[in-house]
Amino acid sequence: MRPEPVRGESAPPPPPDPPIYRDLLRTWADRGRTLPGRHDPEWVRLAAPQVRRGQFGGLADPVGDGR
């Protein structure tokens, strides 16, 4: 675990990925695959709520309805 940078200091840049990982990421990107640490529009779409707020009006368990 790295210590937090002192106020006014900038953190050192992270070390570069080893060549084998750079090559793997390049191959995945060329094939349109998801890349670690990068924005993935398909995941955002799939993980988005399917029901819009207020789509099914009313309370989930109204008081006194006999449920």
Give an overview of the whole structure:
The chain starts with 18 loop residues before the first helix and ends in a 20-residue tail after the last helix. It is built from two helices and no strands. The model has no long low-confidence stretch (mean pLDDT 78). Helix content is 28%, strand content 0%. The radius of gyration is 23 Å and the shape is elongated. It has 67 residues and is mainly α.
Report the sheet-strand fraction: under 5%
Mean pLDDT score: 78
Main beta-sheet annotation: none
Number of helices: 2
Using the CA coordinates, give the radius of gyration.
23 Å
Q: Could you tell me how far the N terminus lies from the C terminus, measured between alpha carbons in angstroms?
A: 52 Å
Broad shape: elongated
Structural class: mainly alpha
Number of strands: 0
Low-confidence stretches: none
* Helix/strand order: HH
Helical residue percent band: 25-40%
What's the structural blueprint in terms of helices and strands?
Layout: H1 19-30, H2 41-47
